[in-house]
Write a structure and sequence with these properties.
This protein is mainly α and 137 residues long. 50% of the residues lie in helices and 7% in strands. A two-stranded antiparallel ribbon has the order 1-2. The longest helix has 15 residues.
Length: 137
């Protein structure tokens, strides 16, 4: 049951952040990190393991160390045959250093807070509706 909750919170993170999920897949070269198959983005899935029960995803470096980009067949096989965590960690350790850095940067990105410009909405509306903006005058 704990594994289900862990999987769902991290799974929810990638559902809520589809652009990050896409970029993580691109960072691996659109290849399965287990069998090496090159696939379109839709054919790849993000698998996470041994993160413990958390309501929010962990820090980017920790999450990067506990995720794999896999084809659907390899992802199903990992769950079906209960691939030991030590072997999953080994696959992550085999990841190229540049790919690790890129994935951490993707996962750690925090968008700038949007602050709307200070303006008088009513004045802008009056100006937009005034005769100087009408066509043919």
């Amino acid at each position: 049951m704990g594994d289900e909750t862990e999987h769902m919170s991290t799974h929810r993170f990638f559902i809520d952040h589809p652009i990050r999920a896409k970029k993580v897949k691109l960072a691996t070269g659109c290849c399965c990190e287990l069998c090496g198959s090159s696939l379109p983005l839709e054919g790849l899935e993000i698998h996470t393991f041994s993160l413990g029960m958390q309501s929010v995803p962990p820090q980017p470096a920790v999450l990067e160390e506990h995720l794999l980009v896999l084809c659907a067949r390899c992802h199903a096989d990992i769950h079906e045959f209960s691939l030991p965590v030590s072997e999953q960690e080994w696959l992550v350790r085999m990841r190229d250093g540049h790919k690790k850095e890129e994935i951490c940067a993707i996962l750690g990105y925090v968008p700038r807070r949007y602050t709307p410009p200070e303006s008088d909405i009513e004045e802008a509306y009056r100006e937009a509706c005034s005769s100087r903006f009408r066509f043919g005058v």
